[in-house]
Design goal:
6-stranded antiparallel β-sheet, mainly beta, Immunoglobulin-like, 2 domains, 7-stranded mixed β-sheet
């Protein structure tokens, strides 16, 4: 009898393993229209992307259309907590993703809803509640860092304007000043969706309702002790904060108001503010007291010295000639 115990135990474990292996997972959810007050979207295809870490391992095995109530349900999914499932929907030629979910023995069913939108090329709902502009300088070069908080206050995905490439749109635009150098995109997600054409920086990522941040920096060489920064306002802007690192610099411009010192991460900046800028206006900032090389003064001194030397030579030769 004692010898049969291991056999029963082995048989019991085999039954458990078979039962676990037979279990399958399920992902379900609803597709809502964000443009029509969260009404459910029928008969749209939902596709599961399966990731192992950062690697896409399957993008075609699990596909299902929503039913008449806007619900999808994908079953018979592998139970493996190392896999992440992302539902994807293409709606009006734009791809939308739901939240990634994992299936485990403790949670065989998961829900992931998606919200889709209609499209528009009208930028009337694009608004910049706040912009931050940081100015610093070194070796006759200004470094300007622009940080924009941008809202799409509408109920449609903003597509901007089409380009020569049908699959690319100029969505958000940011004019660059003449003479800019060393442009760097600071927003990680925007590095692959940014391009420059005819002196304007474009973000080509389609902009669904909500908010996003876009930031970049560039440099401008300057001469003398003054520089004027001018840029056209493209979107209605609630306010612009200007932060200057050098306490010796001064800044002037239409609507610019000094706000005192401001501390950011242990650094003290001069803080200036502008309010309520509208499309078509110009952001005009004049920086003075820049520690530039006084090129004009050096130029004049050299010529003065040269003229004095030449004058002495002429007088000397003239005197010698007359004496003869």
């Amino acid at each position: 009898m004692k010898k049969s115990i291991p056999i029963y135990l082995l048989f019991f474990l085999l039954i458990i393993q078979t039962s676990l292996t037979a279990q399958k997972g399920e992902i379900w959810g609803n597709i809502y229209s964000g443009s029509e007050d969260s009404s459910l979207v029928r008969n749209v295809e939902v596709q599961l992307l399966v990731y192992l870490g950062h690697n896409l391992v399957d993008d075609s095995s699990y596909v299902k259309k929503t039913n008449s109530r806007g619900k999808y349900r994908l079953t018979n999914l592998p139970v493996d907590s190392s896999l992440i499932y992302y539902p994807r929907v293409t709606f009006n030629d734009i791809v939308y993703y739901g939240n990634g979910v994992r299936i485990s023995l403790h949670q065989l069913k998961q829900q992931s809803d998606l919200v889709v939108f209609d499209n528009t090329s009208d930028k009337k709902d694009i608004f910049v509640p706040m912009e931050h502009l940081f100015l610093s300088h070194e070796n006759n070069v200004l470094t300007l860092k622009e940080i924009f908080l941008i809202n799409n206050r509408g109920k449609k995905t903003y597509m901007g304007q089409k380009t020569e490439d049908e699959n690319v749109h100029y969505v958000l635009e940011f004019p660059l000043p003449a003479g800019y150098e060393n442009l760097k995109i600071l927003t990680p997600d925007a590095k692959n969706s940014s391009t420059v054409k005819n002196g304007t920086l474009y973000d080509t990522a389609l902009f669904s309702p909500g908010s996003k941040q876009y930031s970049y920096q560039f440099q401008i060489p300057y001469k003398g002790n003054e520089y004027q920064y001018t840029r056209q306002i493209i979107y209605p802007t609630g306010g612009v904060n200007v932060f200057i690192e050098n306490p010796q610099l001064t800044i002037q411009g239409p609507g610019v108001k000094p706000m005192g010192d401001f501390n950011i991460k242990g650094k003290t900046y001069q803080h200036y503010s502008l309010k309520h800028l509208m499309p078509g206006m110009q952001l005009e900032l004049t920086l003075t007291n820049l520690p530039g090389k006084t090129i004009g003064f050096n130029f004049d001194i050299k010529w003065i010295v040269l003229l004095v030397v030449v004058g002495f030579l002429i007088v000397g030769f003239g005197y010698t000639f007359l004496k003869k």
